[in-house]
Each structure stands twice: as structure tokens, then as C-alpha cells.
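Two entries, shown back to back:
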Amino acid sequence: MKTIFIFLSIFVLSLPGYSQTLHALLFVNEKEQGRETDRKADMDNMKVFFREIAAQLGYSYNLRDNSDTQFTAAEVNQEIAGLNVQKNDVVVFYYSGHGYNEGSDQWPTLNFKDKNYWLSDILKQLNGRTRSAKLVLCVADCCNKGMSNAALPAESFNPISSANMKALFTGFQGRKTVLMSASKQGQFSWSDLQRGALFGICLRNAVYKYTDNSSDAPTWEAIGERVKETTLRSSGNKQEPQLKIIQAASAIDE
């Protein structure tokens, strides 16, 4: 009996421990000539934003911030290939840099230092490595042009509710993928030299609005509508974000 007890004790102690993780892959062209200040604001803001979300979820935070020499399509592939995603993890891909549209896809092409990369192709790569994730959030904040004297949104919010943040990121059946870009095909995206990209500001504000302690049952559909409305208004109806939500029945253990 003693031998069996010792064996079971060793077995239990040897089991790997794992807490749920929010994996954030951030790619921001902080060295873009003439855009260094607002690109840095995008990186700093999103690093804090997703760290706060991970804390509210009670998740570990796996931050992978890539800029300067790491701002490449090759690095995107390497970061995605290196993901170790467990069941019910959250995976975020965020891009801030130049983008354009080649006309054959509604989603933008991202302009990395080594080559261009369609957002749709990045999503395919992500989905191949994140089948067990609870939520995949893929965001392109691109095709930016300097904007001055703009009516940038300034909002205040009640304290964040952890319950609302969990409802938004993990509180649903099955698996969800959320794909966003800052503007529709054929449109510019706008940015403020001090506060960063307009779309990024509107996205953060919408998440805060729907997850503060005055909100109830937050959804990505509601956030998408809010981001669209505030971005359109602040850009003088020149920039309309787009959103696509893909719902699957369940996550798949890798």
C-alpha cells in the first residue's frame, strides 16, 4: 500500500501545470518614417490593453511584441508556428502599419519589411495553429494617413467588470474567430500623431464600454457596431471598419 501511495504521489507531482493564457502577437512598424510617435503609441496602448484583458480573465499573458527588425512576414510565420495554444486559450493578432488592397480580397494586404502579406492568409496560418483556442481575434489597423484637427473620441468608463470581460472573450459555446480591419476596401485609415490610430482608439473604447460594470451581456457584434459608428463619425464618414465573426461548434484539442 505504501508503495502504491508513493507512486501516485510522484505521478501527481509530475503532471504539468497549466493556466489559461492570452497570447498576443503584436506587429507594429514603430520605425516607419514620419510615423514613429503614433506607431509607438499604438504599440504601448495595445500592450497595456491586452495585459489588462488577460488580468480581467485571470489568464497568463504571453506577449510577443514585434517591431523594427522583427516587423517582417517571416517573423509572423515564426511567431505563429511557435504558438503553444491549449484548450480555451485566447489568441490575438494585431497589426499597425501601412496597408493597401490589391482588389481581389475585401481584407487588406499588410506591408511588412520583407514582403506583403494578406490578412486573410495570416488568418489561415493562425487557424491552423489555434484549433483549440476559445477565441481568435485578428485585427489589422492599417492603411493609415496622418489626420490633424480630427474629432478624436474621448470617453470615460466605469470600472471594468471581470465577469463582463470573461463573457466577451470566453463566455460562449464552442470556438469563435473575430476578424477586423480598420477600413473597408478602397478606403484610407486615419491616425493622430500623438494618440495613435483612430480605429485602435475606437476599438479599445468599445471594449471598455461593453465590459464596464454598467454593461450587460457584451458581444462582439455590439462592439463591431460601436467601433463602426464611432470611427465613421470621427473620420467624417471617410473610414468604415469591417468585422467578420466565425462561430464553430467546438474547439479541437491539439
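entry 2 starts here
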Amino acid sequence: MKIAIGADDAALELKAALIERLEEKGYEVADYGIKEGYDYPDVAVEVAEAVAKGEHERAILCCGTGLGMSITANKVPGVRAAQCHDVYSAERARKSNNAQVLTMGQRVIGPEAAKVVLDAWLESEFAGGSSAAKVEKMEAIDRKYHPEGVGI
């Protein structure tokens, strides 16, 4: 699986730690590096659009808190981003909500704890079941407000 990762200048150390973990686990990493003049919304939308277009199955976005990345990524139709700083939330983001994007904040979580959260998110899969209808409702909201979509 090829996983995209992006960060702003407030989370470069966290991004580096997560890239290391992804590579240790054998994932191919697409690093959306820092570009001059880019703020977290710029990085988040670029990565989220790549996910929506199917260029990556999953992505990780890091900033100071993870909040701005999550808010921005969720504005891209077809993308479900979840800010997670604990294992349970990371598992539920995948199992119940089929979140393709994980966001974390360098000012909120240390690199070793972030790796544990990342592992939980990577190892979890969408369970379907009663959650499938809820995810479909989220997708219907995307289509209602963005009928043109973004690569979806």
C-alpha cells in the first residue's frame, strides 16, 4: 500500500518519525514535502485530493495539533479524516468510519506514542455492518453539497 504523508513546519519531526515507522513496516511512502509559501491548508488539500482521486489508499497529515489538517482534509469530497491521539480512536476511525486520512499534532503527541497510534490505524480495517449505512450517509452529504466531486 502506498501511503501519502504531509506536514507543515510545525510537525516536521513527527512526520519524520512516522515515515520511519511506515518504511520499517514495508509501506511505500509518498512524502508531500514542505513547499515555499505552503501552510497546513495547502498541504492538507493537496494530500486529500490525491486520496479522493485514488492515488493513495490512505494518508497521514501532521501539524501542530492535527486539528487544522483534519478540518481542511474533510472539506474535500470523498475524504474522511480523523484526528487521533489514542489507539481506540484510531481503531474506530477505520473500523466504524472508514477514515482514509489520519491526522496528528506534534504539540499533542510524542513520536513513540504516535507510532503506536499509527500502527493501530494501519492494522484496522472498515468493519462494514451497521457502520456501512452511516458511512453511506456521510458520502451522501458529500454528494449533496459537492455534486461535482473531486475525482470521485
